[in-house]
Amino acid sequence: MDSVPNTPPGQLRRMAAVWEQVLKKGGIGPEDSFFTLGGQSVMAGTLVRAAGERFGVRIPIRTLFEYSRLGEFTDHVVGLALPTTPVTAPPPDTVPPDVPLEMTAFQRRIWLAEQIDPGVRNHVPLAWSVAGRLDPDRLRVALGRLVAEHEILRTRFLDEDGGWSVRLREPWLPPLELLDLGEGPEDTSEGAADIPAGVTEWLEAALRLPFDLESGQLLRAALGEFADGRQLLLLCVHHMVIDGESIPVLLAELDRCCATPERPRQVVQYREFAAHQREQRDSAAWHTDLAYWESALEGASADTPLPAPERPEPNGAFRLPLPAGLLDSLRAVQSEHGVSWFMVAATALAVSLHRWTGLDDVTFGSPTANRNHPRFAELFGPSLNTAVLRSGVTADSTVLDVLLRMRGEALGALEHQAVEFDDVLNHVKPARRFGHTPYVNVTLNMNLLDDHVAVLDGARLTPLLIDELRGDYAKFGLTVTMVQLAGRLIGLVSHRGDQLGAEDARDLADRLAALLKRFPEALHEPVLPRG
What we know:
Layout: H1 9-23, H2 41-55, H3 61-66, H4 70-79, H5 105-116, E1 123-131, H6 136-149, E2 155-160, E3 163-168, E4 176-180, H7 197-208, E5 219-225, E6 231-238, H8 247-259, H9 270-280, H10 284-296, E7 316-320, H11 326-337, H12 341-357, E8 361-369, E9 384-392, H13 399-415, H14 421-428, E10 442-447, E11 454-456, E12 459-463, E13 478-485, E14 488-495, H15 502-517, H16 519-522
Parallel strand pairs: 4-5, 10-13
Antiparallel strand pairs: 1-6, 1-12, 2-3, 5-6, 7-14, 8-9, 11-12, 13-14
């Protein structure tokens, strides 16, 4: 490995080891760029945390975007002098069932939505193809151990005297349904869309059936088997106890429970995260972040208008027609401008909204994982916050101008997560419409299924995409989800039929896909028509 000026070779090797572990690539050299190696925003957070722990410094996430090559990043980090604060306190012991616990802002929002409208479903359906074989009995035992060790999976959400209350219940054993899937498709690997009817039937039934939030049993499981012995693992989990960042933790912990069921270990519990969030309120960082969002949203419309159909239509979901080599075609843009592919997707969505609506100021939302504290990097439980991305343009603005704006917006959002989105809304008091969430009724979501490929009890699990279910649980007027799966970028669109008709949703999606396909060539195009 070559060295670079001002960087001791030993330090460069230490940093390269961190990059190789996070990016899952070998032989990374000093001139290699985070972006050309496939890096993106969520991975950036993991990398700077890991590098900070290895080098004993606190690294702002913006550093990786400003020094995106291994050599220059190492050079900068070695020069940092601010030590991190080690976390030495052991996790507290298990609390008894009668002791009230904290509910996070995200959980309160989900709980309130279901109290207002019992028809709302906040279920998270998950499916994996299994390469190898899972033993149902061992899997049942592991699921029971998982519930016993992670309190979030046995947490009860109670409605007491018109308010909420949170308690733990005793460990319980999730039933494991066994499904006969018959002959099935020839291949269910690599996220294949040809999913057998028995799988979609089970997931659709699991999505329709409400969870009893007071039961503390918010997990359903099934193991499907084809006639030739291939298997699929299916889960349906309530959003109160899981989010996308928790899925790798779930699989890793389930694997550990399979391998060593008789050796439980002490884990960081979700109530610790909830208590940490409460402690952050009214801190200096909390007030700084609140002031940031107040300034960022000043003068912004609380609603990006969507053309509602004359009569409500069914919810819908479909894929964006994206080419197979899109990620590769974007890497030169990423490296030149120091942006992730999420920032590119945000730019394409912003430009499409500007052109579609004719507005010069639009906002949309994006979920963020609020787990930057090293102690909660492997937390099991939802840690989501919501960031608002705002795009303002003039008659002379180009696509490149929006790209640089989105870069700043995304980095600003990642750096100002101490305050919850609900607190921002309570502070700025935007105008509200029933059924519309201010600023974020259009949402861009990033889903890294590549990171969710896992080993469970010796079998390899590959996540499956089940597109047709997305319309069933559409929460916002329009949601665009960008999925990285098997090295390919896949776009999924879902919409609420009472706020956006199918024809208009397809029109916007086609505009978005067309811009992404030719993004490198479109950078100097005007955003709005001239003349």
